[in-house]
């Protein structure tokens, strides 16, 4: 992207910490030779689309206003895709994706400052590339819609281990050092261990690691329909900063 195009996108993003993170981290990834991020700027310069491809799903976030044909192009996809759009666009996206909508829900964006965090629980450790199959099997068994890719293990993914078994996890999905900001995700506790506060223990370990790295803001997204998760994040100090429509669609 040219400097002018980058400036135009930054102007559209304003001060939204999640969208700014998506964009700046995407630029970092492109500079590093990765090809799983993309940006589309609308012809009128009033809107843009930020996209990232994971192993099994693409996420596209629409910012501002697009022409009708541009929005239609966003909705045309050859794989399972999450479309994150402003609430007023929900009906138009549903119409464009008729017969392909797998889930019609809302995503909540949360943020929390990272400061002086307590030391991590000794049951927690950072997962490594060798743990990929174990972590992937955990998600497949207990939350198959989780967005998880092998490259996420290059950053901080914390696992809580009891009796030699991984029983809970969570960590960083996107990071940008320049913004001192991360986006968190993949928090999961296996059913037989829920109700013990293990998600809070994992989150504390993640935040302690981030504080040591100089990160100052943690963000995350949760579907509004998952009220238990939203309440849990709010109890951990995360504050709601935005809510948008989230449409999960199949190829077409």
TrEMBL record:
Database matches in InterPro entries: Acyl_CoA_acyltransferase (IPR016181), GNAT_dom (IPR000182)
Domain N-acetyltransferase: 122-252
GO MF term set: acyltransferase activity, transferring groups other than amino-acyl groups
Highest taxon of source: Bacteria
Stored Gene3D superfamilies: 3.40.630.30
Pfam families: Acetyltransf_1 (PF00583)
Protein name per its UniProtKB record: N-acetyltransferase domain-containing protein
Biological classification of the source: Bacteria, Pseudomonadati, Pseudomonadota, Alphaproteobacteria, Rhodospirillales
